[in-house]
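Exam prep: given the inputs below (a chain plus tryptophanyl-5'AMP), describe the expected output before reading on.
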Amino acid sequence: MKRMLSGIKPTGQLHLGNYIGALRHFVEYQDEYEMFAFIANLHCITVPQDPKELSDNLRDCVALYLACGLDPDRANIFLQTDVRAHAQLGYIMCCHTYMGELNRMTQFKDKMAHGEKNLSGGLYTYPSLMAADILLYDPDYVPVGEDQKQHVELTRDLAIRMNNRYGELFKVPEPLVAKVGARIMSLSDPSKKMSKSDETNKGCIYLLDDLKKARKKVMSAVTDNYANVHFDPENQPGISNLMQILSSLSEDRPMGDIEQEFAGKGYGEFKRSVADAVCAKLEEIQAKYKQVLESGAINDALSRGAAKANEYADAKLAKVQSAIGMEIIR
Ligand code: TYM
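Solution:
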């Protein structure tokens, strides 16, 4: 059985972009692949966090993994900090990453370009830790949204570099980026991606948003003057974004199908259909989220997941350290 690994960094509440671009694929693939789905809580602290908010977000993230359909009987679900080998291999990967490579990572470059002050060293070196997250488990595929593809490509380069230097240590993984929904845009500014750090809060639909609020966000999404529901991300980014959301939430319905249904109809009617699909999905997820919180399933899932993950990760770390010559007992 081929293996897959991915993670989400709960620096805030999970949103529709995380669900459409990543989480729904973890769920889809859990039967076909040996799945490792973790919560990247070391990555969270690369930017300042309020401790109470962070621990609430962590709990919600696990609860949402389960509520969206990840099943601890079929997938290994764990917290990054419950597997210490992540931090240790992360340091080793950092020592094998060139500063030039880290300088080219767009997320860090963007923050620098915005003139953000007091950026942490952790934020700069985080792609090396992400490489460790992946390479510890030798996955074949890493399902991610578009914005993380660059990090998986760096991971491939690092794996190849270390294999060349020390002998075969790591499988070289492939990023898996879906054709539709890999970059869901902000509803209030479709030139930016939907993100947890949306300051206006109007462009981002959180999975735990009140349904009325979510509907309002969709109904006030920025569109255009073409009065034509047509898939053209360059010229009609707002409408195309809503089409991607609708398609992703209705079993990847083809764009031509959606265009046909709404031909000659106004944007109001189209937006109502998108809002209906979004609210139906949120309602389903939120009902399961409540059940998960009441059931105590979180602790059970995390301890089972961590036990399995530690088995793989410890063995890989020992192999790497020995190959580098960092161990005395072989
Ligand atoms: P994070 O937490 O920013 O995002 C989690 C996943 O959601 C996807 N995503 C989106 N997809 C579509 N549209 C959007 N607007 C959108 N926003 C986010 C991301 O591409 C990602 O797949 N560094 C990672 C977490 C991580 C990780 C890993 C992932 C740490 N180690 C190892 C995979 C493998 C991150 O910050 O993702």
